[in-house]
Amino acid sequence: MTFNGDNFDWPFIKARADYNKISMENEIGISCSTRMGSEEFSGRFASHMDCFYWVQRDAYLPQGSHGLKAVTKAKLHYDPVELDPELMVEYAHSKPQELAEYSVSDSVATYFLYIKQIHDFIFALCNIIPTNPDEVLRRGSGTLCEDLLMAQAFRCNIIFPNKKTEDSEQYHNGKLIDTQTYIGGHVECLRVGVYRSDIPVRFKLEKSGYQDLINKTEQIMDFALQVEAKVNKDDVENYDEVKA
Fold first, then answer.
1. Which of 132, 155, 178 is at the close of a domain?
2. Which one of 126, 136, 139, 201 is least enclosed by Cβ atoms within 10 Å?
3. Cβ–Cβ under 8 Å, residues 92 and 113
4. pLDDT of residue 12 exceeding 90
5. In this structure, is residue 80 part of a structural domain?
6. Which residues span the domain enclosing 226?
7. Is residue 171 helix, strand or coil?
8. pLDDT range class, residue 186, cuts 50, 70, 90
9. Does residue 112 contact residue 76 with C-beta atoms inside 8 Å?
């Protein structure tokens, strides 16, 4: 069980093992495979459950909120210990206890995220999708649906076709295509992000809400500076300009 172990923890361990001429697969049964251009670490006798895959596919959190700290706040509802990465080496020499608390905090957050949100969910899916937990955790929803359909087809003695594979090189009018998107596809995304000018949209603005924000401008700025950015208000040279 890791958080982003495929891209952080295991590559570091593998590099150390390679440097010391140790085979991870022979010693602990963990091997590295490449799928879709990215490395995945799995074991012969144990599952490697990387919580980050669940966050990306099933947590329904916005982009930019997939880090362990943000996920812990959103899913476990508490604030973990935080430490500026620039201070880690310094703290290893001067404040080892605080560095240890930061490390333990990450481990505890990963453990409870897995136990409370991921373990039961993934292994319940394994009861209906005929593949191992690593695959159920890492594959996309479409692939999992295909696996489930194939299992049902097998039980019902229904023949299903092989997956269609595309040629690695594709041509259009005799010319090699470098990249290909969904040709001819048209997607209309309404009322999301910046609104289009050619689609009529009615806005209803609450004046009292805006006035409340105006009245609390200084309070909001002070909170952003002192609590979030950890900056002394007196050190900001253009405070009045920004407030105005």
1. 155
2. 201
3. no
4. yes
5. yes
6. 207-243
7. strand
8. low
9. yes
- 133 and 214 in a single domain? The answer is no
Q: Which of 77, 62, 80 has its CA nearest to residue 3?
A: 80
Lowest mean pLDDT, pick from 100-114, 117-131, 176-190: 176-190
Please state the pTM of the whole predicted model: 0.63
Helix axes 51-58, 119-126, angle to 10 degrees: 80
- For tokens 């009045």, name the residue: 240
Domain annotation covers residue 105: yes
Looking at the 3D structure of the chain, how many domains does it have? Answer: 2
Do the Cβ atoms of 2 and 50 come closer than 8 Å? Answer: yes
Residue 62 φ then ψ, to 5°: -70, 155
C-alpha triplet 213, 78, 60: angle, nearest 5°:
75
CB 83 within 8 A of CB 102: yes
In this prediction, residues 133-145 reach a mean pLDDT of 90
Report how far residue 225's alpha carbon sits from residue 235's, in angstroms, rounded to the nearest whole number: 10
